[in-house]
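Data card: per-record layout.
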Amino acid sequence: MSPPAESPMCLIVFARTPVRGSVKTRMRPFLSAEDCLRLHSLLLRLWIGRLRDWDLRQVHKAIFLTPLGRDGPDLKLKLDAPKDVAVETQQGKDLGERLSHALNQKWNEGFRKLVFIGTDNPVLGIEDLQSAFQALDECEVVLGPATDGGYYLIGFSSLLPALFSGISWGTSEVFRETVQQLETNSILWQRLRESFDLDTYEDLVKFHHLLKESPSVLPGPDDQELVALVARLVTSSGIPQWL
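The structure for this 243-residue chain is written out next.
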């Protein structure tokens, strides 16, 4: 798809295809495989709704999902994604290769401001995305650090796929190693506010407490199914909620 000539911006949502046993595995054994699938599916649905409803003018939107295989269902039908959202397949052996491939692909399509996010940060707002795109007017890379040592957002205004190489994916070193590469190569970058991802059961408990203290974090009617699920998963697990 060709980018709009007046504003070649692209928002890319990276996510695992919702398949039982392959999503939210770090929540085990506190959650069952079925509960992990339900949580992941609701987070993915939440972001599909935001891509549909948020006023992201002149921004091309794409969802990159992990492969299902030749016998898997059609991803577009499975997701019920809006017509203006491209549903594409991740390619590569690890996360770094898959991100690099997507960056190269969209850059070659003509987009010159690209922002990557996942689906695990439900409190990420439209203002955060706008701030990321605005930052790319002044720098080559923008990063949103996560509390676990990773990042919940990365954006580019230069083609720098090497930033996805040599990173200890899935560890608390991801943000630090990325910043080290940026500094070593004198790449101009900006940092967004710190936030979190829902990766572990501890993250889920903290999110549950946040929702109780600040219900306005997820105020929309489309958010309430996720709010209810989080409450059920935490309160019915039998695990102390101060973890």
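Known properties of this structure: The CA atoms of residues 6 and 202 lie 44 Å apart. The chain has a mean pLDDT of 90.

See the next section for split statistics.
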